[in-house]
Amino acid sequence: MKVPAGLTALSILAGADAADTVLGTFMFHRHGDRTPKALAPTNLTALGYEQVYTSGQYYRSRYLSGASKIRGINEDTVKLSQLAVTAPVDNVLQNSAMGFLQGLYPPVQTLQTLANGESVSAPMDGYQLIPVNTIETGAGSEDAGWLQDASSCANAKTSSNSFFESNEYKDLQSGTKELYESVVPAVNGVIGADQVSFKNGYIVYDILNVASIHNASTPSSPSNTTLTTLRTLADAHEWGLAYNASDPIRAVSGMQLAGEILSSLRSTISSKGSKPALSIQFGAYATFMSFFGLADLPAVNKDFTGVVGYASSMVFELFTSADPSSGFPATEDLKVRFLFHNGTASNSSEPTSYPLFGGQSTELSWTDFETGLNKFAITSTQQWCEKCGNATGSCAAYAQKTGSTQSMAGKGGISPAIGGVIGAFVTLAVVLGTAAGVMLVGGFTLVSKKKMAAKGAIGENVEAKA
């Protein structure tokens, strides 16, 4: 993704917000530089570690010690109740989260004196131990060649697959054949020559991009112009898989993220800014793209349809312009600001604020922000199951209820399953006669053990699926 240009009228410099009081934030962050997906398992590189660490240092200067410091947050020694950090079960993403936290809360010298007079120094100069909670969303995404490989949402997979049947895809597949054939030698056997095509547009670009960063000389390496063209094609490929305005379920990861943003900021509000003050989630570029589409950010700049760079971050700041000395503000005094930075944020390259939902203002009232996200946010397990069309696992209970209701409505009040049971009883009546009558009069009831087990076992929090 290129850095959006020509938006200075919409930009908000970090220092310009000094009059506002930040009450809490939700941050979504991409991992740092890594090894190529085609050579799984992927690993965070030293460069990637440096990128996320630098980003952590920047957000420390912004939210822990600077003019935009979050109200009441601990500056030097972490208070774990104020912080919520999550990442999928993925080596690159989890390690990126830990590297970021080292920059956010660096070591603090601690010396403890025991009852017997012995002095104990904390290991690693007081390295602060901050847990990174794991979530299912995007598990193994950095080892997955295709962005929906890490999803268990059936309808999202079907929707993404339909991109390969579109005219846009077919035109690009046929029109770029010679270009991809020309870079086969540069791929150098990492993937087969028959796989080097627009169908694997992102994987091809990823292999060559990683090589351009880490290999001083690569045989038959493409020119910068060719690499840029491949990057543009990779952007088109991944956008086609991540978002489609006429089929929103394709952007299920963005829908889930929206639900998590709402949940986190609502918790900040209900706890009056303490739990959590700062939420940080690490995830893959596909979630950025899906959310960008749902929030209508391409209307601001078309660059929002591209793959974001390593260590990119977007932040949702909950703030107020009211006098903070009078306590936590009323709902009508709460506002939200969206900021994004493509690549590693630093004091020399800060995030920029952009308007959401096709609007003009970079500041939204909490009510308008909540209403905007609620238009596409997934906020419960049942909602996820229904949108994804899943009927197994934790979705089984909801599928039974929905399927039973729909079937009865479509058959004049009798579902095929119930009709089968009635037929079985009729047959039984013919064969057993009086015995069947006894069963019917006795009022025997058939109960699903799965349904009984599911009762009370499914919570209303979103289960991470994509």
UniProtKB/TrEMBL annotation:
Keyword annotations: Membrane, Signal, Transmembrane, Transmembrane helix
TM region positions: 417-447
Example of a GO MF term: phosphatase activity
N-terminal signal peptide: 1-18
Lineage: superkingdom: Eukaryota
Entries under InterPro entries matching the protein: His_Pase_clade-2, His_PPase_superfam, Histidine_acid_phosphatase
PANTHER family reported in the protein's UniProt record: ACID PHOSPHATASE-RELATED, PHOSPHOGLYCERATE MUTASE-LIKE PROTEIN
Family: Belongs to the histidine acid phosphatase family.
Protein name: Histidine phosphatase superfamily
